[in-house]
Amino acid sequence: MKVAITGYTGLIGSSLVSFLSKKDVTVSRILREDPKDNGISWKPEGGGWNSAFTGGIDGIVHLAGENIASGRWTKKKKEKIRSSRVEGTKRLCEQILKLPTTPSVFVCASAIGFYGDRGVEFLNEGSSRGSGFLPDVCLDWEEATDTISKAGIRVVNVRFGIILSKDGGALAKMLIPFKVGMGGKVGNGRQYMSWVAMDDVTGAIYHALVTDSLKGPVNVTAPNPVTNKEFTNTLGKVLNRPTVMPMPAFAARLAFGEMAKDLLLASTKVAPKRLSDSGYEFQYPKLENALKHVLGVD
After folding, report:
1. What pTM value is reported for the model?
2. Using N-to-C axis directions, what is the helix angle for 228-239 and 169-179, rounded to 10°?
3. Which terminal residue of the chain, N or C, has fewer Cβ atoms less than 10 Å from its own Cβ?
């Protein structure tokens, strides 16, 4: 199998390249600059593929996009988040259709931010969209793949939850205060966190590539979401540190602005229905075991 990846230097992409390389998969990296070492050049701001690339790959995994947690959501930041996902995906899909040989499957990143703040409601891929900035971006992001779906290419929109990795993302940011005993719940701690271990992220993407029956939105979250308070207590237990320093909701809003409402205080309780129904078996379905594995704790 031959697969090309955008965003291969990011948190998911770097792990996915390593994972696929251990499978019977030839991996090509889709680059913004001139191609090197089995790379493919593509300019998301305009233009097409490098002249040497004519297709001949089985699948594309599209992971490129502005980091939503790298700074306050100013008007400029929100425009970059939206444009990098929606417009970038539209342009990539347009260029895919121009290839002499198109791939059979396109796996495109999305997020459980699609569902918004939903309290204790247990959500799956059939649940409605929420309201707000992130749900709107996720909807348009997924709809940007409609052109290639209508052309007969199988599209899987993988809606990622909170990815557990010590190398980046939410968990990496939590580790510094938690390791020195200054971790604690955010707000009232009752908001649900739909998490997933990185090994299951890469496993789910591979499953999406090779499972012909799988298409449309697919939640990539572990089957056992927990409240923020449960997550906090479990992380403290794994690290053998107290968790007595909560961050009040007003402090989160003051520190992070709108991002706090959508990423820290929102409650999104998600089930990976389509993944499970299609036969995917999670390596780390329970939080404590997942954290121990990710953090290398016995």
Report:
1. 0.93
2. 60
3. C
